[in-house]
Amino acid sequence: MRSGIWLSLVVLMGLAVGGCAGRQGLETPDYEAIYDMPLEEMWPSVREYFTDANLPYREDRGSLVLETEWKQEFGGSKIAGYWHRYMVIGKRETPTKSKLWIIRITKSVNKALALPGRQLEWGTDRGLGGPPSARGSGAPGDASSSVAYGVSVEDDADRFAFPVGENAFYVDSGQGTRDLTMEWRVFRGIMPKLAKKQAVSAEQQVAKAPGAKEAPAFTECGQSILGLKKLATAGGVLLLGELHGTQEVPRFIAQSVCQLVTAGMPVTVGLELPVENEERITTFLQSQGGEVDWLKLMEAPFWRSPYPDGRGSEAVANMLEQLRHLRAQGLDVAVFVYDHPKLSGQQREDALTKTVLARVKATPQRFHLVVSGNVHPRTAKGLPWDKQYKPMGYLLKDQLKDVTALDMAYDSGTAWICAADTQGRKLDCGVKEAKGKDNGDRFFVHRWSSANNEGYHGVFYVGHVTASEPAINKGLGNPDAAPASAP
Predict the structure, then answer these.
(1) Contact call for residues 249 and 272 (beta carbons, < 8 A)
(2) Could you tell me which residues are beta bridge partners of residue 91?
(3) Quick one: how many helices (H) and strands (E) in the chain?
(4) Highest mean pLDDT (candidates 133-137, 153-157, 176-180, 349-353)
(5) Do 129 and 235 sit in the same domain of this protein?
(6) Do 128 and 185 sit in the same domain of this protein?
(7) Sequence-separated (6 or more) residues with CB below 8 Å from residue 233
């Protein structure tokens, strides 16, 4: 076999050995994966990879292009609302070298991804046929979408015909981006066969839950969050300071967990919910997610607070379902809650710290993703109104080796916010404007060279924000109560 292939394998082994145990594949190189063989010789292994990953595809004959069918985010969670597919394009680097371009195409029930004019009813018989139970049963372009009251049969056939040619792009795609992470995942999956060592395999080095008999060969976790995996270490704590009440932060958390556990890192999520909910949430995560399980979860008084500040939103409830689904697939996901709402001021910070610290010290082999409002994560002492104030992040930093605090960055939009009314007499909760800065639509994490005055080490960016109402306003947050229709 060619020497270049062996060199590539040595590089891959170095990446695996250089990190801590279980972190193989956690990092993604920022350069292209080059195959040291002609494209025609490499391509059959590409087909084998996607077959092994249970990603059915159609192939554009004669041009070395294939396109997978839609796969729902988080392994088919009922409330994900996002579907992904891949367009795989074989490229000739030289006559003896080749590479793959993999384009991730995303569709969502969120119409923000749709192109202008997508909402227009082009067909004369739009919405004809199909029982009500079939509405929204498939992603766009699937057979079921023709009866899902999305587009007419004629429009379905015209719009979702597979593109022809190497430079064709999926018609009416909501969002398409090149996915370097997926390109390297495929490279690592087929290189052993090219070196005549073993069969092609799409199996990931996942963090398998204790007692789990198996884990999925491939889990769709959405577009890779830039910069996240560099911060994920065993025993490490990542504090996220959020603006409560958005749809995007819970999705950022669910995607982060999914991407880390499928790369081999077990993850524990800490939520700023009352500690009285610990047993209830743990029980739900270990359940089948049925109607009774949801009702038991939502019985807690917390969800019915007279001043819902966004922590009990529909998006948070749906995030718990997504984490439950990942765990049900055999992935090592855990959740704990740590808020002490009966306390206030420094006493509350001390109690938050004690609860989080106990959990981190009890599971030093795990990565801990702890989410709260943006005061608690600060690792610097003092607030504008109290110079002696010691936030949770400041207290944790003194007792743990690896604590990173990230502030939330976002593009302008809306959030469900509780704020004092114009007279300052009571809290006014509802959808309010949230002003931010546009840094694109892709989630990312950015760490600065040093912490700022508030003790934040960087930011996590979630794009345009959209308000998420209290779960009790949306059928108790039960996805079975109001199933999301396909876009």
Answers:
(1) no
(2) 99
(3) 10, 16
(4) 349-353
(5) no
(6) yes
(7) 20, 367, 402
Q: What is the pLDDT of residue 87?
A: 94
How many CA atoms, within 13 angstroms, populate the side-chain half-sphere of residue 210? 4
Say which DSSP state 393 is in.
Answer: H
| Angle, CA 288 vertex, CA 309 and CA 140 arms, to 5° | 75
Q: Which of 150, 167, 194 is the last residue of a domain?
A: 194
Whole-angstrom Cα distance, residue 140 to residue 55?
16
207 lies in a domain? Answer: no
Q: For residue 13, is pLDDT > 70?
A: no
Strand-pair partners of 405: 239
Count structural domains, the chain.
Answer: 2
Q: Give a yes or no: residue 209 inside a domain.
A: no
Kindly state the average pLDDT of the residues 400-423. 92
Residue 223 forms part of a structural domain:
no
Do 267 and 133 have their domain in common? no
Q: Has residue 134 got a pLDDT over 50?
A: no
Which residues constitute the domain of residue 146?
A: 3-194
The pLDDT assigned to 26 comes to: 61
Q: Is residue 331 part of a domain?
A: yes
Range 56-66 average pLDDT? 88
Q: Are residues 233 and 179 in the same domain?
A: no
Dmax over CA atoms of the chain, in Å, equals 77
Phi, psi of 142 (to 5 degrees): -75, 165
Note the pLDDT tens digit of each residue in 372-389: 999 999 999 999 999 999
Do 379 and 394 form a contact (C-beta atoms < 8 A)?
Answer: yes
Contact between 187 and 15 under an 8 Å Cβ cutoff? The reply is: no
3-state secondary structure 319-344: HHHHHHHHHHCCECEEEEEEECCCCC
* Contact yes or no for 418/405 (Cβ under 8 A): no
141 Ramachandran zone, left/alpha/beta (phi>0; psi -120 to 50): left
Is there a single domain that holds both residue 283 and residue 356?
Answer: yes
Q: What band does 486 get if pLDDT is binned at 50, 70 and 90?
A: very low
Residue of 448, 460, 311, 455 whose CA lies nearest to 391: 455
Q: Answer whether 357's CB lies under 8 Å from 235's CB.
A: no
Same domain, 32 and 167: yes
Residues 188 and 277 in one domain: no
Round to whole Å and give the CA distance between 252 and 393: 21
> What is the DSSP-derived secondary structure letter of residue 111?
G
Same domain, yes or no: 286 and 435: yes
**Are the C-beta atoms of residues 456 and 377 closer than 8 Å to each other?**
yes
Nearest CA among 313, 78, 308, 48 for reference residue 193: 48
